[in-house]
Structures are given as structure tokens and as C-alpha cells.
Amino acid sequence: MTEEPTPSLPTPLLDRHRALGAKIVEFAGWQMPIQYAGILEEHRAVRSAAGLFDLSHMGELVVEGPEAGAALAGALVTDPPSLAVGRAHYSMICAPDGGIVDDLIVYRLADDRYMVVANASNARTVSDALVERLVGFRAVLDDRSLATGLVAIQGPRSLDILAPLTGLDLDSIRYYAIADGEVAGIPAHVARTGYTGEDGFELFVDVDRTGQTWDALMEAGRSHGLVPVGLGARDTLRLEAGMPLYGNELGRDTNPYEAGLGRVVKLAKHGDFVGRAALEKVEREGVTRRLVGLVLRERGIARHGYPVLNAEGPTGVVTSGTMSPTRGDAIAMAYVAAADAGPGTMLAVEIRGARVAAEVVPLPFYKRPS
Fold first, then answer.
1. Is 212 exposed, middle or buried (0-12, 13-18, 19+ CB in 10 A)?
2. How would CATH label the architecture of 9-57+147-240?
3. In angstroms, what CA-CA distances link 84 with 60, 110, 308?
4. Which of 96, 157, 286, 310 has an alpha carbon within 20 to 30 A of 141's alpha carbon?
5. What does the pLDDT look like over 37-49, one tens digit per residue?
């Protein structure tokens, strides 16, 4: 007997996306907009003005209790108790062998209350893993994923658009910080985080108030060039910013050191954590492959899965690639042998049977003007 596939979930903004003419696709179990006017237009709007994103598919997992911090320190590779209230950090949850189960953002909302934001495709896996890892601690997990709406406003005009809608002093919210307040009269956690390489804010609201939040931002941003942005431009923006994507750059067969994210692993923290022994071994012995940036020096576009070659033969594989809307050239991220990972190394990407010259460059490909 064939098992029926689970139907994808609508975000609380699906009707608005359709009214705006969005192309809707199934993504990580959700019906999501991939584009509205077009990926290039949306990408450029975020770089020059502002874009509004529906991220309600992400997982929001609240961990609270007297030992919430200690529990998370044993569950994740970072040290959440070291966060001040109102601050956040990038983190990972790893398997015992050091493989990455998911990459996360951890926010400390109060002394004994944290919010862990997981990727949509892994939210259930992370929730289940945290429940197991909380055993023995005076801490509980409340999976708020379906009760929480999340919209992000990103781009150089973000602060100007959001400021009139809130009594919060947005200038005082530093990068990777979060504050409680109201946006257009709606209670919200307002975080200065994002996935685009631009300044911006992510707003966590009650799922039933997501539509009102979206509408208020769209109206406030009309005169500032704000546009709705889908998953297509979100991907090209994060790639230019050198930000990894789970399932491409990160996965169970990848450890943080290979991904160039060894700094996230806090081996100096007190106590054990899942994956510590395996990650200590990697840190001690080094890696055989590394994640690098590539810029193609000949005509072509590198795509996920394309082979990367050195003079002798295969050295790695492309994880993500596109024609950069901001730079105007073809960029990619790839895992290559550690010996080929130095900036300036000339390699090639195999595209439809042809070798296309590519140079290893430092990440990110784009940094916003200071």
C-alpha cells in the first residue's frame, strides 16, 4: 500500500502572495513564493532599497527553565549561556560524529528563556533532537513553529521603513540582537538579523497577526522602494554574501571545520556536548576538503553538483552557483581538496563536458558598503 504524501502547508501570507502575482512552489513542506516581479528585480531592490520576505516556514523552538542554558550548551556546539539577554548567535546542532544536523540562530530572550530558530526542512528533526538532549535538565521545549509568523525586512532602507511603525529605538538594537516591542501595534520580537548581507530586521509575531504585520510594512515601504521578495532572490542574495545553505553547503556529511565555520564550535566551554569528541579530533588533525568561493573566468554558470577539477582531475564539487546580479559575473561555492583551497588557485568547473576556468577567491563575494 503506497503511503500518501503529506500535503504542503500554507504560510499565513499565502493569499497575499497570490494576490501579488507570486509564483508559488513547494519548499520544505510549505507553499512558498519563489518570485513576484522576477528574481533580478527583487535582488536589486534589496541591495538598493528594501525587500520584504515571508519566512513563516522557519522553525521557532522555545527552550525555558532554570537549566535551559546548560541544556542548550550540551545540545549545541556553541555556548548559549554566554549570551547576554537580548543577544543572539549563530550556532549548529551536530550529530555524535560531528556531522551538521542543522545550522541555527539562538536568541536569549530572558535569563531562563531562549529561542532556537531552525531551518524549515529540519525543524521537526531539531525539535525531536532537542527534546532528547534536554532529558535530565530542568528545562522544557515549546515548539512554537506553527504558532509563529516571521517576516523579514532587508536592505539599506529597512530602518527608515520600520522606524515609524515602532516605539523601539532601532539604532540601539545591534546586529545579532533582539528586543520586545510592537510593530504597527502588534506585539513582536524584533531581531537585527538576516540572510542577505544587508542590514535589516526579522519580526516574530503571533501567526494570526502576520498578515497585518506584512500589510503595515508594505504600506510603509511603498515610498521607499520596498518590494516583496521570494525564495529565488533570497538564494542569490545569501550566495553573494557567502552564507551557507543547509542541503547545499551544510549537511550530515559535513562538519563545521570543512565549511569554514570552526569558529562557531566552542571547544573551550565547560562540560560535554554532542559531537565534542569528533570535532576535537577534526580540529586537531585538520580537514581534507574546504568550502571555497569560485569566480568563473570564462563564460558559463556553475550549478549545484557540477564537478570541480584541478590539472590532474576531480578535486571537488560545486554546492551553489549563480550569475551574480550585483557583480555581473558567475560565482559559486564549492568543496575542494584542502591543497586546492588557497585564494588565487586556478581550477576549472566542468559544465556540459567542457572545462571552464575558475579562480578560488575569499568569501564573501559581496559586502555591503559601510
1. middle
2. 2-Layer Sandwich (3.30)
3. 20, 9, 43
4. 96
5. 999 999 999 999 9
Under DSSP, the state recorded for 175 is T
Cell of 206: 503571533
- Please report, rounded to a whole number, the percentage of residues in the chain having pLDDT higher than 70: 98
User: What's the grid cell of residue 248?
Assistant: 547545499
For the chain, give every residue range classified as CATH 3.30.1360.120: 9-57+147-240
In which residue ranges of the chain is CATH 2.40.30.110 found?
A: 288-370
Backbone angles phi, psi at 283, to 5 degrees: -60, -35
Question: CATH second-level architecture of 288-370?
Answer: Beta Barrel (2.40)
Q: In Å, what is the CA distance from 141 to each residue of 71, 204, 266, 272, 318? A: 11, 18, 23, 20, 37
CB 326 within 8 A of CB 242: no
Backbone angles phi, psi at 361, to 5 degrees: -130, 160
**Model-wide pTM > 0.90:** yes
Sign of CA dihedral 41, 43, 47, 50: positive
* Residue 4 confidence (pLDDT): 55
Residues 6+ apart with CB under 8 A from 273: 73, 74, 75, 76, 77
Number of Cβ within 10 Å of residue 254's Cβ equals 21
Q: What are phi and psi of 104, to 5 degrees?
A: -140, 165
- pLDDT tens-digit map of 42-80: 999 999 999 999 999 999 999 999 999 999 999 999 999
Angle among Cα 176, 177, 180 to the nearest 5 degrees reads 145
Task: Write down the H helix ranges in the chain.
Answer: 14-19, 39-48, 68-75, 123-133, 158-162, 210-221, 231-240, 276-285
| Nearest one of 185, 183, 124, 198 to 150, comparing CA atoms | 183
DSSP letter (8 states) at residue 258: T
